[in-house]
Amino acid sequence: MASTELKQYSLAQVAEHNKPTDVWMVIHDKVYDVTKFLAEHPGGEEVLIEYAGKEATAEFDDVGHSSDAKEQMKQFLVGELIEADRKKKAATGLTINKRVALIAGSAAAIGAGLALIFKASSKK
Ligand code: HEM
């Protein structure tokens, strides 16, 4: 797998790169060193510095970055987050499980409701 070739970093290690002269950040569990990109970022260097050493996935996605931007960021990839620190993924997994549970629960409730209606109407 390609991802196993990437260097593994913890959030604590990424957090050490939190100065305007040394900016790392986490986007979708990947670790980026955007220090050399600061001055070129069309969205300005301030936002990148603000997220120096931090998780910036939600903010990156909120901007609705173009596919060009996503292509460009590959140049700054230095590694990926260690499995234990990938909170976002675990949370998404839970959300999907919850959704499935909700749908299954609703289906059961509708089924039970229909059964009651049938029972009631067959008594008449
Ligand atoms: C490696 C990481 C990043 C790359 C390569 C990147 C690249 C780009 C590019 C190419 C644009 C121009 C518009 C587009 O093509 O979508 C842009 C705009 C922008 N970016 Fe980023 N970006 C990165 C990270 C971030 C992060 C972490 C934030 C916020 C915390 C951010 C905030 C913005 C904003 C606010 C704009 C301006 C949008 C506008 O003016 O409409 N970017 N970025």
From TrEMBL:
Keyword annotations: Electron transport, Endoplasmic reticulum, Heme, Iron, Membrane, Metal-binding, Transmembrane, Transmembrane helix, Transport
Source domain of life: Eukaryota
Keyword Transcription included in the entry's annotation: no
Protein's cellular compartments: Endoplasmic reticulum membrane
Transmembrane region(s): 100-118
GO cellular component, one term: endoplasmic reticulum membrane
Principal place of residence: endoplasmic reticulum
PANTHER family membership: CYTOCHROME B5 (PTHR19359), CYTOCHROME B5 ISOFORM B (PTHR19359:SF129)
Name listed for the protein in its UniProt record: Cytochrome b5 heme-binding domain-containing protein
